[in-house]
Automatic annotation (TrEMBL):
InterPro entries associated with the record: Homeodomain-like_sf, Transposase_8, Transposase_8_domain
GO MF terms held by the record: DNA binding; transposase activity
Protein name: Putative transposase
Organism ancestry: Bacteria, Pseudomonadati, Pseudomonadota, Betaproteobacteria, Burkholderiales
Pfam family, one: HTH_Tnp_1
UniProt-listed Gene3D superfamilies: Homeodomain-like
Residues in the signal sequence: none
Example GO biological process: DNA transposition
Originating species: Hydromonas duriensis
């Protein structure tokens, strides 16, 4: 998995700079990122502080883990139902 290049606090600072009126090409060049990254961050994290961003990422990771566990449990249940149905 690719490592994150920017921390939550860096993303929040970049978004604040963009909101202050710095032209987007200059902002992207200064921080070495693409405009697509800026727009993605703006849509995801608009108005959030760094602590909220970190908490949201942790919740998303937890949600993904729980979805995976649920899918595995459903698969296991289906296999058991199929095995019991054949007897």
């Amino acid at each position: 998995m690719k490592a994150k290049k920017y921390s939550e606090s860096q993303i929040a600072a970049i978004l604040k700079e963009g909101a202050s009126g710095i032209p987007l090409p200059e902002l992207c060049r200064k921080h070495g990122m693409s405009s697509a990254s800026y727009y993605k961050w703006r849509s995801q994290y608009s108005g959030m502080e760094a602590s909220h961003m970190k908490q949201m990422r942790e919740l998303q990771a937890e949600n993904a883990r729980l979805k995976k566990l649920y899918a595995e449990q459903c698969l296991h249940t289906d296999i058991l139902k199929e095995a019991l149905g054949k007897k």
